[in-house]
Every structure is written in C-alpha cells, then in structure tokens.
UniProtKB/TrEMBL annotation:
<dbReference type="InterPro" id="IPR000014">
    <property type="entry name" value="PAS"/>
</dbReference>
<dbReference type="InterPro" id="IPR035965">
    <property type="entry name" value="PAS-like_dom_sf"/>
</dbReference>
<keyword id="KW-0902">Two-component regulatory system</keyword>
<dbReference type="InterPro" id="IPR036890">
    <property type="entry name" value="HATPase_C_sf"/>
</dbReference>
<dbReference type="Pfam" id="PF08448">
    <property type="entry name" value="PAS_4"/>
</dbReference>
<keyword id="KW-0418">Kinase</keyword>
<dbReference type="GO" id="GO:0016301">
    <property type="term" value="F:kinase activity"/>
</dbReference>
<dbReference type="InterPro" id="IPR050482">
    <property type="entry name" value="Sensor_HK_TwoCompSys"/>
</dbReference>
<protein>
    <submittedName>
        <fullName>Histidine kinase</fullName>
    </submittedName>
</protein>
<dbReference type="InterPro" id="IPR003594">
    <property type="entry name" value="HATPase_dom"/>
</dbReference>
<dbReference type="InterPro" id="IPR013656">
    <property type="entry name" value="PAS_4"/>
</dbReference>
<feature type="domain" description="PAS">
    <location>
        <begin position="141"/>
        <end position="194"/>
    </location>
</feature>
<dbReference type="InterPro" id="IPR011712">
    <property type="entry name" value="Sig_transdc_His_kin_sub3_dim/P"/>
</dbReference>
<keyword id="KW-0808">Transferase</keyword>
<dbReference type="Pfam" id="PF07730">
    <property type="entry name" value="HisKA_3"/>
</dbReference>
Amino acid sequence: MDLLDAESDAFAAALAFGEIGLAFLDDDLAVVRRIGRLSDWLPREGESACASPFLLNMEEKLASLRAENGEILFPCLRMPAKTQARANISIRYSAEKRRYLVITTPAHGADLVDRLFAPERREQRLLQQQAEAAAARLRVADALYRDIVESSEFFVLRFGVDLNVVFANRRAAAFLGLPQDALIGRPVGDLFPPLGLDDPWRIEVAAQGAANFEMAAHDAEGALRWLGWSVHFLGAEGGGEFQAVARDATASRLLRIERGKAREEARAAELANERLRIAHDLHDTLVRSIVAMIAQTRLIAKTTGDEKTKAALRELESQGREGLREAREAIERIRVSRREEDDLRVIVAQFAARRGDETMKIESEFNFGERELPRDAEELFAQVLREALRNVELHSGAQRVRISFMREERAARLIVWDDGVGFDPDAATPGHFGVDGMLERARGAGATLTIDSARGGGTLVTLVAPLPD
C-alpha cells in the first residue's frame, strides 16, 4: 500500500469512526455534498442548509462570511442523533472555490464534563420527578373532591389565537376584583399585564408545548403577587383555544429566596472545596483529552497529502488549542479565592443571570477597580447589595433596576434603584427582617443607609460608608 492509499485510508477511518465530518454548500446555501456521518445533521444534498435547526434564520449571517472571510463556530452542540453526542461545528467560506466548508468534530471534552456531573444531574432529575409525581397526586386528589374549574384555588383562563379571553373561573375573577362576565372578550395581556419589558403571553411557544413562566401581578387590593402560569394548546378538539392555569407562587418564591439566603454562608466553605475538586477533575479529564485530540490531529495531518484536509486539520488543531486555553482559564477562575463572592460586579452578574428567564432591564456603573476596598467595607457593601437585590427580585415587580457604586474622596457610595411597586419603609412587616438587617449592618459599620420608597413609586436604597485615608 503506497502513501496515497495510507492517507486515503486514514481519512476514511477518521470519517468512519466519526472523528470528523465535512460538507460543502454553494453560494445559495444549498448542500452540495456531505461526507461522514457527523455531517448528517445537515439536510440532504440539494436542500437548503438553513433548513437545519442549527442554522435556522441564519441566511444573512452566512452571507456575511463571503465579505468578511471570517468563521462561524458552534461549540458543544448536541447532535440530533440517537447517541445525543456533542460536536463542534465550524463554517468558513472559500472565495476561490465559491463554496462554504462545514467541519464537524466531536466535542470530547463536553462529553467528559457531562459524565463528570452526571450523578448530580441524575439526582436533580430524581428530585424533580419526585416533585412532579407529588404534584400530580395532589392534582388527582383535588380533581376527586372539587370542581377543577370553578372550585379550585388555581386560576383558569381560556383564550383564542387573538388572545381574547373566552372563559375565566371564579378564582381568577376574584383575584382581579371583577365579575366573571367582565373578563370575557378582554385580552389576557390586559387582565394580567407583563410588569417586565417582554410579553410572556406568546402563543407560538404554547402551541409547541407547555409554556411555563412566573410573572408579577397586582391583586384587587393592589398587592404584588407572583403567579406561576402553565399555558397549553388544547388542539382542534378543544376548539383551537389555549388554556392557562396558574397558582399563587408568592409563598414558594419567598421560601426559595429565604432558603437560599440561609444556606449562603453555610455553603461558602463547601463551595470552595468543591471548586478545587472540580478544577482537579477538569484538569485530569478535559485538559488531557484536548491535548490528546491535538496530538491525534497532528498525526493525521502528517499522514495525508491532501492540502484541503491538512488545512482543515490545522484549523481543527487551532480550535483545539483555543479550547485548551479556555479550559485552563476556566480552571484558574474556579480556583479563585472565596473573596470573589463579595465582588459587587459578580453579585450583579449573578442577579442578572437569575433573571435570565424573566423581563427586567438591569444597568450598572462602577468607578473603581477590583480589590480597592478594605475587606470589612467590601463585605458590608456586598451584604447590603445582596439584600437589596433580593427585595427587588421578590417584591418589586420592577421593569428596570439601576446599580451604581462610586468611590469618592473619603467614602464609597452604593445606590440601588428600581421602578417597581415600592413600599412604606415605616410600615411594620412581621416576619420580614431584610430592611432591619441592612440598617443594623450599616449602623454597626459606622455607615449611613437610607431607603426612599412609596407604594407605586419605586425604591431607592443608598449606602454611604467612610473609607480609611
């Protein structure tokens, strides 16, 4: 067997073992050829590549590659195959050949990380299944003794594709303080308006399956409550209507936040140890696998004389090196000291991440660098900021939140503002100690905390603490 045959066999083996997949698209984004089973995620030859879920509505982005000579990279996508393996997809345009090159390679590192965290995910799924089973049993028991529509504590609405209500049960009408007949024919978004920037009443989501979301709403007395909605399409047999069922999730939302607050300090030491363990595991698995992949890519490149294949393998090696760099940076970040937990920027970022499935515009401004504050001042500002953001998340129903931290000549100033429902700071709140806790922390540190708020007028929290010369 001569060298050309060996090269051809090596490339064929890589394709056969699913180590690489190649595909070519013409200028109209039609699939010209697919090579290797890793490219089976693309439509058949002759069909538009943008018919694939991965490339849906990306015609303009792909067309821009012809002018920019750049690359589109999709890392760690789960393939629509029985194995559910993950893969990296790279798309480039060749002006010389007037074709797009699509390279698909296994994301071995992602699979290793999946296996690393598989026990935790299985435990979470088991807990979720147990919770769902318990909820199902409760619903069955309720259905045996109550009329699910009129006597249940759940809110029940039905509306058409125009979003106009055609039925509302007594519970929903009582919550709004209106007669049932007064709800018929009104848009569901008017009865339960979104208090955020986006409208959650999107029937295109419910038409594809259950649409589940939590939203803030004001009851008949103007109090802010959180409702957990589940919207289903009833199908043709249901008159082409949608049914929305909601429960009052205010208590459970409060419980989640309060439990998180109680666990926060207890978990700090455990989290530090867990980070170190994960860093070691990632180094021993993910990093070594990427290094092995780079070495294997080099070996294959040496055994082939095809320039296109070599170029693709060089690109693959470059991607592997970039992935190795990012993995090492991620490991280093995991090993960062616990002090990062009190970094105000990190707290704001975590708050924004928690609100990722909701609708709120968050603005932040900082005029100081990391580690510029004394440790005790840093802890004070972090504690007050966390409590203020918890109150925003739980009680405000705000559309906008603005956080600023400014270091002045001899003091530092933290401002947290929201445009939510506000409250009376002087009113007694039995069982709630968040505001009192912030005031006590500020007084104990020799700082000044002011809370300006009124019902319907938003809330402004200002903390000013002196700094040593």
